[in-house]
Design a protein that fits this description.
The protein is of the alpha+beta class. It folds into two domains: about 110 residues, 3-Layer(aba) Sandwich (Rossmann fold), CATH 3.40.50.10330; about 160 residues, Sandwich (Tumour Suppressor Smad4), CATH 2.60.200. Helix content is about 30%, strand content about 35%. It is built from ten helices and 17 strands. It is elongated, with a radius of gyration of 19 Å.
């Protein structure tokens, strides 16, 4: 087996990465090579090159680095192996990849690893795998500093989002969900591929699946109860109510729709993010690309 590893040295954890990888790959008698990134673009370029000559492309870093590498592997047969090294590692957690580096490295070269092809959210020729957000949640994500992430980890995101929600002013949205148009006021709109928020098991919804071929649209109307329920959903038991696209937006504080494509417009320029990185604001045209990224996961456990 030939494994190509892409390592982001600026990720949020301080550990002897190469020594751990060398032990795991040597034990499996795997042939491996490594590329250390110097910029965000490095990861994608290295993955594009490696996909042509490697059995597995592995990435050590946070969700941002994972997203860069994943964009290079879309639609191909070369699987992605996750080596969690960031602050949140949300994608790895959602898919059940071990957070311990030695275990994740062993999985990357295991003949018993299971493949799962997950969906991608496509926006302006770029794939996203966590969330695309508009409004107060995006303001919190974009405004989070590296120091705050390093100090507080995933909980820093929760605190920042609650702060942003508390001070949020309603935004006039207009949505086209598949072929149905409707509008209304909300403080935040998120399009999710993964329901998990961060460590600790917090989720926007238990029902969001990474491989179901659907986009999950989360709309937060109430800047008080709805926001708190959304950000700490599993802790407070606040599951968003599934909306009916034909009816449109209702007075429910926290609402969820499913679709295959969505257009989002607002009455003014507002913050927006894709997988934690700032993006140009609305209008946004988002579509789902079903089961386009093969990822290595632990073997399935028989019930």
């Amino acid at each position: 087996m030939k494994i190509f590893c892409i390592i982001n040295p600026a990720s949020g954890q301080d550990r002897p990465v190469l020594a751990v990888l060398n032990r795991a790959f040597a034990a499996a008698e795997a042939d491996w090579d490594v590329h250390v990134t110097k910029s965000a673009a490095d990861a994608r370029r290295a993955a594009q090159h490696a996909a042509e000559s490697s059995d597995v492309v592995a990435v050590y870093g946070g969700d941002g680095t994972v997203s860069e590498v994943a964009n290079a592997l879309l639609g191909g047969d070369t699987p992605l192996a996750l080596l969690p090294g960031g602050t949140g590692n949300v994608i790895a957690q959602e898919l059940g990849v071990p957070l311990e580096l030695s275990e994740a490295a062993a999985l990357a070269c295991s003949p018993n690893a299971r493949r799962l092809s997950i969906d991608a959210m496509m926006l302006r020729d770029r794939a996203y795998f966590l969330r695309i957000g508009v409004g107060a949640e995006a303001a919190a994500i974009v405004g989070a500093t590296r120091d705050r992430k390093d100090e507080l980890g995933w909980f820093g995101y929760v605190l920042g989002t609650l702060d942003a929600m508390r001070d949020a002013q309603p935004i006039e949205f207009r949505w086209r969900v598949d072929d149905v148009e409707f509008g209304g006021e909300a403080v935040a709109c998120m399009v999710a591929n993964i329901g998990r928020i961060g460590r600790g098991g917090l989720r926007f919804s238990e029902s969001i699946q990474a491989d179901d071929g659907l986009l999950d649209v989360l709309i937060i109307r109430d800047a008080r109860l709805g926001a708190v329920g959304a950000v700490t959903a599993s802790a407070l038991g606040a599951e968003p109510e599934m909306g009916d696209v034909s009816v449109g937006l209702t007075d429910i504080p926290f609402q969820r729709f499913q679709c295959r494509q969505i257009r989002i417009e607002t009455d003014r320029e507002v913050p927006a993010h894709g997988d934690g990185d700032a993006i140009d604001s609305v209008p946004l045209e988002i579509t789902v690309r079903p089961q386009c990224l093969p990822v290595l996961l632990p073997p399935a456990i028989d019930p």
